[in-house]
């Protein structure tokens, strides 16, 4: 059975902290727990990568509802930024991360393409709204 990317990431990251997510649901208490790892100079590359990914996953969980529901174009932008940071972290620290987590990078790249298309449409709609406001009432229906 294929586990969705965010749920799979939650499972792997929770496991790395010794947590047991009860249902793999995307819930705020788990996001807060995942984001709670402080970073310091004594950490190994693996610990640093996992701490970074934990914080990014918490960001993902914070932005995902607004992006999914289409309530705020900025939530989609913030989700894309978070996904790009996750991709960069997975790439940079690949030798130090669990193989299953590194393999999830392909799914993340697919999501980035999809989110990019949605973001492009949001920008285009915003531009049409801006241009429409500058047109006369008679020209707006043509737009």
List the helices and strands and how they pair.
Blueprint: H1 5-16, H2 28-34, H3 45-69, H4 73-92, H5 99-103, H6 105-134
Helix pairs in contact: 1-3, 2-3, 3-4, 4-6
Structure in words:
It is a single chain. This protein is 69% helix and 0% strand. It is mainly α and 143 residues long. The chain has one domain (5-134). Helix 1 (5-16) runs antiparallel to helix 3, helix 2 (28-34) runs antiparallel to helix 3 (45-69) and helix 4 (73-92) runs antiparallel to helix 6. The longest helix has 30 residues, at 105-134. The radius of gyration is 19 Å and the shape is elongated. Residues 1-5 and 21-27 have low confidence and may be disordered.
Question: What brief labels describe this structure?
Answer:
single chain; 0% strand; mainly alpha; 143 residues; elongated
């Amino acid at each position: 059975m294929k586990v969705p990317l965010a749920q799979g990431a939650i499972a792997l990251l929770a496991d790395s902290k010794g947590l047991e997510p009860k249902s793999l649901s995307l819930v705020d208490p788990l996001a807060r727990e995942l984001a709670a790892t402080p970073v310091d100079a004594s950490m190994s590359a693996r610990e640093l990568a996992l701490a970074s990914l934990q914080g990014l996953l918490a960001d993902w969980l914070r932005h995902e509802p607004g992006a999914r529901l289409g309530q705020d174009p900025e939530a989609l932008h913030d989700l894309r930024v978070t996904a790009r940071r996750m991709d960069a972290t997975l790439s940079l620290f690949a030798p130090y991360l669990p193989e299953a987590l590194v393999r999830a990078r392909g799914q993340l790249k697919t999501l980035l393409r999809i989110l990019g298309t949605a973001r492009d449409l949001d920008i285009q709609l915003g531009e049409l709204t801006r241009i429409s406001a500058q047109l006369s009432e008679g020209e707006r229906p043509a737009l």
